[in-house]
Specification:
Layout (H helix, E strand, L loop, with lengths): L31 H4 L2 H13 L3 H12 L7 H17 L2 E10 L3 E12 L3 E3 L1 E3 L11 E9 L3 H6 L8 E5 L8 H18 L3 E3 L28 E4 L1 H12 L5 E10 L4 E10 L4 E11 L9 H21 L5 E8 L7 H9 L7 E6 L7 E5 L7 H10 L7 E3 L9 H5 L4 E6 L4 H4 L12 H20 L10 H10 L3 H6 L5 H12 L3
Parallel strand pairs: 5-6, 6-7, 7-8, 11-12, 11-13, 13-16, 14-15
Antiparallel strand pairs: 1-10, 2-3, 2-9, 4-8, 5-9, 10-12, 14-16
The protein binds zinc ion.
């Protein structure tokens, strides 16, 4: 879901990427050359690079299924497609795992028109899980609300009654982008109560990127808003901002119609496995999200990841090699509404968590993989490096311990496991992300095939190396790690900080060591 305030709010949290602790016993960690995994990896690389179906899968998902909003008929079709692909390539134990999303949502129409000071249509699209204007539309005068002063705006929301709210960013942010995102949700609730006509404010209240593009998205974790909220193109929004700044009266008319379901809707993760030959009970999850937004065919978010998961499974299967431990391939859904599919997975597999090794996720758009972010597990960086170095003939990839909290890696990091993000170098992702430009044109087949192969190699190496890669950390240690990475503020603001972490914090405060 990637809570972006693109290019405006610098990430204020520091990553502990470079800081890794050397092993006390001075034994150099073993890479594929020393740990016996190399012959299998060579076969897998050959299959992945020379006989890849990754782009074919991506084309089918993009063109034949298209957008796939969680809980929608198209998303159900994508689940069936995922099951069929997994079965056809020969994965074991292929099935879906159902869960409930708190509420479903269907986009209707979104029209906006400037009435004063000039008359012209404006380009807008509704943000996900937001409401509607009265049937036939409503009009109002534009007033601004400052995202960087959002606490005050929440308190003074009554002044917005009957107005169109234009979210602006004035001055400097005093809070992290994640916290602003959390409080923005409170603001939207207050604005809804105050009876505003509509709110102009995109992802986390930010302005759109790219030429004439809107970017939809959710505005919280599992949260919906009665007020209509729209993303407007940067060009149209810029004009409104200039009018308002020069004191001109601006009047807009909106007609936005969306539909919520009456109750929860069903969705499902798609699961298939390569069972381990020695320790099948130990599981590495390899995942991406199958669900998407709906302004396009959703190729780069996260068709690329979904195609990589399938193609990585296929490369391993065709190599004929079976890893020591189980690799479980999961196409998550509900990611865009708040990582619902991966959180549901953690609940459904709670009893198995002690046997998990972590998860590996690709969900950063269309570019080549550039770093392995080990999701807070700084203890694993040293053992991972020799593996990453063994890939240098394919690509130089950095290793760090940074946490990615806007992806399906987060629930695993919160379980004290390495939620590994295969972070990509995707400069154009800010344009394709949740926009109408997210189409097959944005993807280079050779980059996709290479990413899928890297995913296969990483998964196989983790699952097959003689030493177990990782075991879950305790709640104490995990909570401490998340605090060190400044993820606690956001998790608390969204009510996602678990009871065990709060208790661990209390114990720590009572007896600091
Ligand atoms: Zn995504």
């Amino acid at each position: 879901m990637r809570r972006v305030l693109t290019g405006v709010v610098a990430v204020m949290g520091i990553t502990l990427g470079g800081a890794w602790t050397a092993r006390s016993d001075n034994r150099a960690p073993k890479g594929p050359d020393e740990d016996g995994t190399k012959p299998a990896l060579v076969k897998i690389a050959g299959e992945g690079m020379m006989d890849s179906h990754a782009f074919q899968y991506l084309t089918e998902l993009s063109d034949d299924i298209g957008s796939r909003v969680t809980g929608s008929p198209a998303e159900r079709k994508a689940e069936q497609w995922g099951v069929a692909k997994m079965k056809a390539m020969g994965l074991e134990n292929v099935h879906t795992e159902k869960y409930q999303l708190w509420r479903g949502w269907t986009r209707g129409t979104a029209q906006a028109e400037m009435l004063e000071p000039i008359h012209r249509p404006l380009h807008v699209d509704a943000m996900g899980w937001t409401g509607s204007t009265p049937v036939g539309g409503a009009e109002g005068e534009v007033v601004t609300a400052n995202l960087f002063d959002i606490d005050e705006e929440v308190k003074n929301a009554s002044r917005l009654s009957g107005k169109v709210v234009l979210v602006v960013m004035r001055g400097a942010p005093r809070k992290s982008g994640d916290l602003l995102f959390a409080i923005f949700g409170d603001f939207l609730k207050a604005a809804g109560k105050a009876g505003v006509v509509a709110v102009i404010g995109g992802q986390a209240g930010s302005k759109a990127s790219g030429m004439n593009l809107t970017h939809t998205g959710i505005l919280g974790f599992d949260d919906d808003f009665a007020v209509p909220v729209v993303s407007m193109t940067a060009e149209d929004q810029g004009q409104l901002e200039r009018y308002v700044a020069s004191g001109k009266k601006v009047r807009l008319r909106f007609n936005v119609q969306n539909t919520f379901s009456n109750g929860p809707v069903e969705s499902a993760n798609v699961v298939g496995e390569i069972r381990g030959r020695e320790n099948p009970e130990q599981v590495l999850v390899v995942g991406a999200h199958l669900d998407s937004w709906d302004l396009s065919e959703a190729t780069t978010d996260d068709g690329t990841g979904s195609a990589s998961v399938l193609a990585s499974a296929e490369a391993i299967l065709k190599s004929g090699m079976r890893p020591r431990r189980t690799i479980r391939f999961v196409l998550f859904t509900g990611e865009e509404q708040g990582l619902d599919g991966s959180f549901a997975y953690m609940k459904q597999h709670h009893a198995e968590m002690a046997n998990h090794l972590g998860n590996l996720v690709l969900d950063s758009g269309q570019g080549p993989v550039k770093d392995f972010m080990l999701g807070g597990r700084d203890d694993l960086v040293a053992s991972f490096r020799p593996f990453a170095q063994s890939l240098a003939g394919i690509r130089n990839i950095e290793v760090n311990a940074a946490v990615e909290s806007g992806m399906d890696t987060l629930p695993f990091s919160m379980a004290g496991l390495p939620g590994i993000n295969m972070n990509q170098d995707s400069p154009d992702y800010k344009y394709t992300h949740h926009s109408s430009a997210d189409a097959l044109e944005a993807v280079k087949p050779e980059v996709l095939a290479q990413n899928a192969t890297l995913m296969a190699l990483t998964a196989y190496w983790i699952a097959d190396r003689p030493e177990r890669f990782a075991s879950p950390w305790s709640a104490e240690k995990t909570a401490r790690m998340l605090k060190a990475h400044h993820e606690d503020e956001m998790l608390k603001a969204f009510g996602l900080w678990p009871k065990e972490f709060a208790e661990a914090e209390k114990r720590e405060e009572a007896s600091p060591n």
